[in-house]
Specification:
Distance between the termini of chain B: 58 Å
Oligomer: heterodimer
Family (chain B): Belongs to the ATPase A chain family.
Order of helices and strands of chain B: HHHHHHH
Distance between the termini of chain A: 186 Å
Structural class of chain A: mainly alpha
Structural class of chain B: mainly alpha
Subcellular location (chain B): Cell membrane; Membrane
Number of strands of chain B: 0
Number of strands of chain A: 0
Largest sheet of chain B: none
Shape of chain B: globular
Largest interface: A-B, 53 and 59 residues
Helix content of chain B: 55-70%
Function (chain B): Key component of the proton channel; it plays a direct role in the translocation of protons across the membrane.
Keywords (chain B): ATP synthesis, Cell membrane, CF(0), Hydrogen ion transport, Ion transport, Membrane, Transmembrane, Transmembrane helix, Transport
Helix content of chain A: over 70%
Membrane topology (chain B): Multi-pass membrane protein
Chain lengths: 193, 252
């Protein structure tokens, strides 16, 4: 049976291709078995392979690859831009923070300065007022002392007068006539006493 | 049909792990000529459709905040763009659309090939050889155009001992010409092997006793194939970048 098949394969190669299956089986029995090694189909496969490759090449190079390249470029551009924008915003935020901190520090320093100034102002005002008050108190004290001295002097004079008058009156009551000058001298003597 | 009978006679098992790689005309019974619509054509067209859906429909809104589909498209774009830029340097970036085309074709062909009942164009040596030799020829032309005769410096290890340099040059030349072969066979071979293996395990499922083992094995191999589909697309692309780097900067 194998012989018959080989014979068929040998005698009618062109007919055999028409009945591919039979030929392959026959070839198998005869020893050469691979359909890949049948040259009668090569021209067909090569022709269609070339057609396929050309079609794929044109589809890719005319439509797909420029499109994908454009999309990828656009995407990377967008990403780069976004990153740059984010970087800028971050920088701005840092700047703003620095400004804020500086403003805060300035405000603190200003406040401290104002507090110190105010304290100094109050202290100096206070000192002036205290000095003024001391002065006033000293003046008042002096005035008071003066008044007291005056009063004391007045009182002594009054006492002397009263004593003179009283002594004159007592002397008169006792029936004597006293020399006013003697009495005065006597009273002055006694007052010193 | 005759061998089906033969196989069943042999032990009740039918193994045709390579049938899935057959290129068949879809709308006619005639021989496959070079413009007939075959299963290969169909699945290449579906790969193109997937690329259009993902990269044209998915990015239609050009959203700055991407939709899910657009994110996936951008992920692919960014991944391959970065690979090209990292490996070949800045002057390799202008070849990015070509490299991206090759990557997407292989990637979608590989993954669509994992759908049940589908067909994998990249498991065909005819397809991968065109890709591999295409890269090889393009890179060689770019190398000579950019560097002139100094492109041959790629084969001359100036930091090796002088005695060894001719020997190394011969090895380098051989390895340079082997590149497209390994480049294309790696891809087709990996996919063919994986798909054939799944088919073989599926063949064993006909025996009830081993069917559970077979199903587990298919699941495991399928998982592996998902990895392979992505990794092979990646490997093909990064090797393309490395070859391009050699062409742009041949000095070692």
């Amino acid at each position: 049976m194998a012989d018959t098949n080989t014979e068929v394969a040998h005698t009618a190669t062109d007919v055999a291709t028409a009945h591919g299956a039979d030929m392959a089986h026959g070839a198998e029995a005869g020893g050469a078995s691979m359909p890949q090694l049948d040259p009668s189909t090569y021209s067909n496969q090569i022709f269609w392979l070339l057609v396929t490759l050309v079609v794929i090449y044109f589809v890719l190079s005319r439509i797909a690859l420029p499109r994908i390249a454009a999309v990828l470029a656009e995407r990377s551009g967008t990403i780069t831009n976004d990153i740059a924008a984010a970087e800028e915003l971050k920088l701005k935020a840092t700047e703003a923070e620095a400004t804020y901190n500086k403003a805060l520090a300035d405000a603190r320093a200003e406040a401290a300065r104002i507090v110190a100034d105010t304290k100094a102002q109050i202290q100096s005002d206070l000192d002036v007022e205290i000095a003024k008050a001391d002065e006033v108190i000293a003046a008042k004290t002096a005035e008071g002392a003066k008044a007291i001295d005056e009063i004391r002097a007045n009182a002594v004079a009054s006492v002397e007068e009263v004593a003179k008058d009283t002594a004159g009156a007592i002397v008169a009551a006792l029936g004597g006539t006293a020399d006013q000058a003697v009495i005065d001298a006597e009273v002055a003597e006694q007052m010193k006493g | 049909m005759a061998t089906d009978v033969h196989g069943e006679e042999a032990g009740g098992l039918v193994f045709h792990p390579l049938d899935q790689f057959e290129v068949k005309s879809l709308f006619s019974d005639g021989p496959v000529n070079f413009i007939s619509i075959t299963n290969s054509t169909l699945w290449m067209a579906i790969a193109v459709l997937c690329v259009v859906l993902l990269f044209v429909m998915g990015t239609r809104k050009r959203a700055i905040i991407p939709t899910r589909t657009q994110s996936i498209a951008e992920l692919f774009y960014g991944f391959i763009y970065k690979m090209v830029e990292d490996v070949t340097g800045h002057d390799g970036v202008k070849y990015f659309p070509y490299i991206f085309t090759v990557f997407l074709f292989i990637f979608f062909a590989n993954f669509l090939g994992l759908l049940p009942l589908s067909y994998t164009p990249t498991a065909q040596i005819a397809v991968t050889a065109v890709l591999g030799f295409g890269v090889f020829i393009a890179v060689t032309i770019i190398g000579f155009v950019k560097n002139g005769a100094s492109f041959l410096g790629l084969f001359w290890m100036s930091d090796a001992p002088l005695v060894l340099r001719p020997v190394i040059a011969i090895i380098e030349v051989i390895s340079y010409f082997v590149r497209p072969v390994s480049h294309s066979i790696r891809l087709a071979g990996n996919l063919t092997a994986g798909h054939a293996m799944i088919k073989v395990f599926a063949g064993f499922a006909a025996i009830a006793a081993v069917a559970p083992v077979s199903v587990v094995a298919i699941a495991a191999v399928y998982g592996l194939e998902v990895l392979v589909a992505g990794i092979q697309a990646y490997v093909f692309t990064i090797l393309t970048c490395i070859y391009l780097k050699d062409a742009l900067h041949p000095a070692h």
